[in-house]
Amino acid sequence: MFSFLINPSKFNKFTDIIFKPLVFISSVILIVGLILVYLSPLDYQQGLTVKIMYIHVPSAWLALLTYAIMTIYSIIGIAFKMPFSFIINRAVAPIGAVFTLLCLISGSLWGKPMWGTWWVWDARLTSVSILLLLYLVIIFLNQTFENRDVREKTIAIFIIIGSINLPIIKFSVDWWNTLHQPASISKLSAPSIDGSMLQPLLVMTIAFSLIGLMIAVLRIKAEILIRKNH
Amino acid sequence: MILIKKIFLFFKRESKLFYRNIVDLFSNILFFFLSIFIFVFALGTDEQLLKSIGLGIIWSLLLLSSTLSLRRFYEEDFNNGVLIIIHMRGISYELIVFLKILSHFLFVQMPFLISIPVASLLFNLPIYEVYNLMITFIIGSLILSCLSSMSASMNLLNKANFSIGGIIVLLFSIPIIIFSVGINEIESDYKSLINILIGIALIFLGISPWASASFLKLAIRNK
Fold first, then answer.
1. Is the pLDDT of residue A178 over 80?
2. Which of A180, B8, B31, B162 could covalently link to A124 via disulfide, CB atoms 3.0 to 4.6 Å apart?
3. CB contact under 8 A, A137 and B168
4. 3-state class of A117 per DSSP?
């Protein structure tokens, strides 16, 4: 059932079916999410700037999720020698880099009115910027080696080693005293955010992940074609 | 006993190479001191300022100057075929990498240990900071040797972009610099940080022979 996740030809067939509905659904959800964001209440302290959250938080989550997916695929790819996972690594890395960059830029635009600075050397911010550096090194490594097998294995090993950074990003707000607030949704107890703000946030997250999935499908298909032609 | 003799011969060869290429080491140390002078010229000679940031500057310059010797780690031995010959004498690639790391640690990183007190003299660092710096450098340079072994063996396969090896070493040396500079900020409980550093060193000492050896095998296969 899930063999389209590891088999290129089945992936192509599956995505041919789902791609048009995916475009439709993601655009509908994005429009609904933007309307919900517009209607959502203002924060009693932050005012209008709280609406940056609806871009900042989904892009941060997706940046982490993309790296986690790449880590899982590189482990699978090295363990079971599946070339499709390396295709995904190559295709998905720029998307993750863009999400990380979006998270950093929106965060610094949010930080200027709230904290008074564009940038603090805070544990959360620093670890996320290291994530951006990891993505950039992965993108550079993709264009470095001539030998394809070597390139793919090297990148997979690099991704697995770099995944040490993911728990550091997640727990940085708990381990160190940071200016960045601790987690208010992705924790074991009930979310400490009001429902009227949680609802548009979740809708925006779904919209962002569907858009990311859409771009990823296009890039993976292009990558499969490139590999077939070589 | 035969293996021990082979290892002894390996180190003998490495030390001979070290004495022949000692100018290279001197130029690395010269780079280190020259960059300290450039830092001082750029920042001005305010004594308190230099005292407060001296440790960080020394550590980051040590990292940068250790990436200078990255090219020489495997490239010569790989190009003139010595790696294959040593392997044919019955030493596995993993052991070669391990011995290479040890010899890099002894012959390339340890001479910097002598230059650290002189450098910290230039910044007027207090004596306990120099002591901490030397202890952390002994452990941290072992991690650096492992990292440079990995990225140097990776660079053997890479004919387009040589600076990526240095970038990878610098990227993974972030935890080293966090823990080693952090020692001076927690004066009471610095042993825990040293333990963490030793732990990282042991992890890398475990990983890097396998990783570098797989790269070496690929490079020799694709030569």
1. no
2. A180
3. yes
4. coil
